[in-house]
Amino acid sequence: MYPRVPALRSAAPQSLVAALPNSHPSPISLVACFFTWHELPVRSLTRQSLFSSNHVAAFLHLGVLAMRFRGTLAKDALAVLLDVAQSFARLSTQSSAKANCVFTLTPETLSIALKSGGAEELQSFARLQTARLFHDVVVQSRAENHIGFECDVRHFQQALTSGKDASAVMLRLLKRDGSNFLCLRTRAVDIDIVQSIPIEVLAMSTVEHYREPSVPAPQIAIEMPPLRALRSIVDRLKVMHKTMTVEASKTGTLILRIDTHPLTLQTLFAHLRYRDDLIDEDEEDQEEEERRRQQTSSSVTVDSKVLSKAILVDGQSTDSVLCCITENRAMVLHSILVDSFGSFTCYIPVLTPDL
Q: Transmembrane segments in this chain: where (predicted)?
């Protein structure tokens, strides 16, 4: 979608290692894996008492990969990226999929994908503008400056959370003792914290399997009501029936309906904004265009639990959420992030009409 740097060798000071408490390894390690996330107080990680600026420099250049990535998050960008990471973490805990997300870095975009192997599972993708997120950013690789890796999004969220009050957060890819890490360095007044998240670097041929699915152009697109209000309705309906019909119209209505013989229950949201500007007519023939104009609404049937998961994505960085529907074929929730940072998209599997 979208020059090789020699690795430096550096040993930890024996006094530093000896001073550490005995502890079990943690998935997220601090200060070149010499400190653990849970057991070392943050207040002890000072330049003066633990390591010199030379040790920091040696660590930050230790085992640099043939690929290179570094960038510094601004304060507003950190809030947006943390919001996106929290959304993925919530979706992963609600899904049968693992919590591992695939990250794809290019000089233009940072893409994150949470995708399971099953067609019945929710697929979620974020696409963020690299230049909007980072300053002093470098993205280089032999694969046309594309970098792909997989990591546990929960660890990524924890690392970002620890830096939300810092003045700056720097991200960098490092290789150490044959293992790859995404390192986050947070800076406060007199405290530096370096966290190392284990990652698995992926070939771009593997990353191709985590691209967004191809879906037909929407027949109806409307702006959703507040997702918290919608979620309370969906959560009540999902306990009554395993499937739910979602219907959107050009008049700005959204209907949630369940059919439980002999009863039919539905909730209607009115006065929503219809987005005619998102309907692509360029590739339609005359007959299809006429049929589309006569069609005033479109509906899909989806798994009630999957829909409930999809509307968990309602963070503070979301400006608006669009619901795009193609009759009996596709339903997409497309969240526009604030200040042109990017978007967050959920593809909801559509069930056949006879279910």
A: none
User: For the chain, what are the domain ranges?
Assistant: 20-210, 220-351
- At 325 the pLDDT is 97
Paired tokens of 45: 């990680």
Rounded-to-integer distance, Cα 285 and Cα 302, Å: 29
Residue ranges with strand state E in 74-204: 100-105, 109-114, 123-129, 134-140, 147-152, 168-176, 179-187, 192-202
The pLDDT of residue 152 is above 70: yes
* Distance separating alpha carbons of residues 110 and 330, to the nearest angstrom: 25
In the CATH hierarchy, which fold is given to the domain comprising 20-210?
Proliferating Cell Nuclear Antigen (3.70.10)
pLDDT tier for residue 260 given thresholds of 50, 70 and 90: confident
Name which of 141, 137, 144 is nearest 169 in CA terms. Answer: 137
Q: How far apart are CA 26 and CA 197, in angstroms?
A: 10
Q: Looking at domain 220-351, which CATH architecture does it have?
A: Box (3.70)
Burial of 56 (C-beta count, 10 Å sphere; 0-12/13-18/19+): middle
